Amino acid sequence: MTTGVRRRMGVEERRQQLIAVALELFSHRSPDDVSIDEIAAAAGISRPLVYHYFPGKLSLYEAALRKAAEDLAGRFVEPHEGPLGARLLRVMGRFFDFVDEHGPGFSALMRGGPAVGSSATNALIDSVRQAAYEQILAHLGITEPPARLELVVRSWVSLAESTALIWLDGRRIPRTELELQLVHDFAALTAVSAAYDTEMAAILRSVLAAEPADGPFGDLMERLIALAPQAD
Amino acid sequence: MTTGVRRRMGVEERRQQLIAVALELFSHRSPDDVSIDEIAAAAGISRPLVYHYFPGKLSLYEAALRKAAEDLAGRFVEPHEGPLGARLLRVMGRFFDFVDEHGPGFSALMRGGPAVGSSATNALIDSVRQAAYEQILAHLGITEPPARLELVVRSWVSLAESTALIWLDGRRIPRTELELQLVHDFAALTAVSAAYDTEMAAILRSVLAAEPADGPFGDLMERLIALAPQAD
Fold it and tell me: Which residues form the signal peptide (chains A, B) (predicted)?
């Protein structure tokens, strides 16, 4: 019995080592450019032994991606304390940490392609989007979101993805600026929806009521108001 | 010579007929669910004859997608006349017409999957995004966009995509409301960027200066200002 348990542990440890090594390689280059031979060499084992644990590169890629997805979803978790704008800004910092650590792999995944377009990888991407969506609703304290709020939150999640992808392509804007901008974008998209819908207006008011004047939302409002008269 | 020319015309006509039939089928169901047999039946020809023109379903799918991509990019073209907000609103109307006409196929394509994740399909999607980006810059009259403007325009294009996808999933919000909302979102994202960058502020001011008070931008500003004091 003891030996059996130890053997199963060994298998799982080896699998985890291979997943970690593969994730490291897949993070820094497009998955199409990473070979099983390289993964075997980096793990210090033979190519046939890799195939003993994973039937092919796609299954190893999917396992590495699952690990990365769990990691990213974990970074969305934030204590329900203090102003919402500051909470979202901390999450954005951890999101950009993740994007920074996995840059080329993140780009390859989100831009699609032969090695990354499987149903399993798409389901993993969607699970991370769903985790982000649910975290935001939980922080807003809303369990049954109206259709317009769902639209704002889900479309903002996609805006965060595309902003990160554009940042990775040349890094021409400092990431801290983009982290703050995405917090502002969330407020702006909510405000646009609130301008035409009373239910959204009530949600916006309850969010802004708890924001300090020197938080990201308060600062944006002040700057927008300063911008408006000159625009007239 | 004449016979030769006529034969080539016949081949091209047949190809175009097959592409049109395939696009109709691929628009209304996920490409994974459409068979070559169905395409052959809809075109009134035999299955082997379809393979004579296209080596497989993927090549026919890519040809249909190319036709759809050209169609969509064509709908972005708008005369350089009148206020920018009204121009963008007309383009959004034609964009949602396209999304409406090709709903299930558009969703399947943009959500990815085995039949749609080829390099060629990704390149086509990117070409449409690039066409949208270039049209907007042309309407803004800007040939060398600063990095922050490029970010706003490209990330707004992705916001338009995700808004259309969310709309298709249940159609719970009237599309005319979303067409207007996307025009407002463009103004809002530009304003957020302008609040922290003098170059973007100058671009925003030149856009707003030409907008009438009763256009989509003017109307939004009025409503946001009405919303702001209550939020305090």
Answer: none
